[in-house]
Amino acid sequence: ACFSASYGLRQRMLHFLHNLEYYMMFEVLEPNWHVLLQKLGAARKLDDLIAQHNGFLDKCLKECMLRDAVLLKLLAKLLTVCVIFADHTRLVMQDVAQVLAATPLASHGDARRAQ
């Protein structure tokens, strides 16, 4: 019961991360990759290949929101918050595990009966 709020936040963070990954992989990179492959097949010179590849990279960066400084900063902050939350959650769970390991099993039942 005491971890339900943090569990809910964890689930929302995971949902955000999964959706961001899905968007970048399947809505941006994969379709642009197929377009690049078609364009590379039609290229006649090395300069054409380089130009098509650079165009692919630019388009992917823009569509993944990595070209806009404001969006990039917001995305970096969101991801940093997720990492910090995960680190703190891991530390709390380690502390809880240590307390439970140091507490005799019989006292767990006694504490529940006392409530």
Describe the protein's architecture and organization.
This protein has 115 residues and is mainly alpha-helical. The chain has one domain (4-114). The protein is built from 4 helices and no strands. It has helices spanning 4-42, 46-63, 69-102, 105-114. α1 (4-42) runs antiparallel to α2 (46-63) and α1 (4-42) packs across α3. The two termini are 15 Å apart. 0% of the residues are buried.
How would you summarize the topology of this molecule?
Layout: H1 4-42, H2 46-63, H3 69-102, H4 105-114
GO molecular function: gamma-tubulin binding; microtubule minus-end binding
Main location: cytoplasm
Keywords: Cytoplasm, Cytoskeleton, Microtubule
Record field, number of beta strands = 0
Distance between the termini: 15 Å
Share in helix: over 70%
H/E order of the elements?
A: HHHH
- Tell me the major beta sheet: none
Based on helices, strands and strand pairing, what is the structural class?
mainly alpha
Proportion of residues in β-strands: under 5%
Rounded average pLDDT? 91
Spans of 5+ residues with little confidence (pLDDT < 50)?
Answer: none
Overall form: elongated
Number of domains: 1
Count of alpha and pi helical runs? 4
- How big is the Rg? 24 Å
Question: What brief labels describe this structure?
Answer:
single chain; 115 residues; 4 helices; 88% helix; elongated; GCP; Spindle pole body component; gamma-tubulin binding; GCP_C; GCP_C_sf
Can you summarize this structure?
Helices cover 88% and strands 0% of the residues. It has 4 helices and no strands.
